[in-house]
Amino acid sequence: MKRHLLVSCLILLLGAFVLAGCSQEKPSISTTNAQPSGIKIKGTVYTNELSGARGDVLSGAFVYLSGAATTSATATNSLGEYSFVNVTDGDYTIVASAEGHQRVSTTTVLIKSDLVDVTDNCVEVDDIVLDSSPVILSYSPTPNTEISRNPTFVVTFNETMDAFSVLPKLTITGIRASVSDNGSIPLAASWNASKTVLTLTTQATLPANTTCTLEVDSTSTAVDTAGYSLVAGQAGANELGQSLKADYSIDVGGLPGAPSNLSISTLNNKIITSDASGADFADAITGTNNVQLYWKQSTGEVSGYKVYVNDVSTNNYRYLTNTIACNPTVTLNQIMNALYGNVMASFDPLYTGKIPFVNNPLYVKVVAYNGDGESVSSEAAVSELNPPNVATGLASNFDAANPKGRTILTNGYDLPAITGSDTGVAYIVFNEPLNAASVTTSNITLEGSPGALVFSVLTQSSSDLGAAAADDFSIVRISSSDNITGKKVYIKGVTDLAGNSVAAGEQLTLN
């Protein structure tokens, strides 16, 4: 039975529908309320040869009917035929796709509004012809998952591939503690007999805690044996086929081992020792001076190291820096900022008593870390080890040859000169501030045991001489009721602020 159907517009795109998702026109059908409902739409899908000639019917192709009134999907039968039944009034778009076929518009057929003879309410859509192209059916391991550091990739295609045209590439991205991870990892390739399964084996261990991308067709040359180019599937387009790239994250491999042999190796480029070449008080009070740390590389996979400092104990550490090196250098100002939020110039060793290496040891803690977390910490602590000594070179500043005295401090303290009549007074100058509690009659003795000895560390404004950052010495005043000129002085047990004691038995003669 024939009826008249008013078809306002039928647009059919003959040709391939790109799996990569090209934005092309799609077959569309427009019906009107003047026509009967329950329309049947049918058609046939064919393949297209590489030469351009029509090929065989395409069974199993996906055909999608989309419209405001009806949305439906079906697959072609063994004869390449599809149909949609009971289609209600409205505008529709037809999309056809199939595994390994493109959606590329090649021909447009337009049926204008007119009365068209149909049989049994059936509209026959012109043939749809799809170019055949190979696609990737699957990846192993599954993309966007974590893989081992020595993975094997398996790529499965729907067509027999030209093995020489497929040139895969594995690219590493990310950051590691001791290596540069950007670049390509060599791959060994092997195919199954039908050239549909490609197995890729890495020829180097992948760096942990990174990501990698496998590009199957890195040079855009991959074709099947019929000459069709490899194409990618389009996400959410109801098409079979995978992307030509697969991303993975690389396994970290557990927590790293703890750093070992941690040491604070140098201060102001001097080894921290007790001999004359070692770092001393003057090195520890200049904020721009460097402190170099050292530790042995942690075992396992390391993304970096976190360094913490403290000045009073081994808890409540403050974060100092993050590094990928095992021998970082930081300044004393950086350490002071981490500890107190200010630079060295804002502190002095006597009034504030907060100078690391001097008033307290510098405590350091280091942990290694990677994507799985942090290692057990390694800790160390050290103070400057150079003992105080008598600064004999300054003695001439305080004798009768300088009768007006000598301004010896940047804060203007004027130390009176010793004249010939001051036989019971002497000054001993040390090269750094002293612990005043150690300046006692038992630690400083005079030849002949003169009477009424008094020892004091001279002070001004409630601070010992040497408190200003530029003053790296201290002055002990000796007074006696007897004449002490020419007497020998024996010094032992006098300590600096770090607790270092003068050499046992050090002696000098008072002028």
Automatic annotation (TrEMBL):
Q: Which PROSITE patterns match?
A: PROKAR_LIPOPROTEIN
- Pfam assignment, any one: Big_5
Q: Does the keyword Signal apply?
A: yes
InterPro entries named among the record's database cross-references = CarboxyPept-like_regulatory (IPR008969), Cu-Rt/internalin_Ig-like (IPR014755), Ig-like_fold (IPR013783), SbsA_Ig (IPR032812)
Record key words, sorted: Signal
Signal peptide start and end residues? 1-20
* Domain SbsA Ig-like, residue spans: 133-231
Q: Does the keyword Signal apply?
A: yes
Could you identify this protein by its name?
SbsA Ig-like domain-containing protein
- Please name the source species: candidate division WOR-1 bacterium RIFOXYB2_FULL_36_35
Species lineage? Bacteria, Bacillati, Saganbacteria
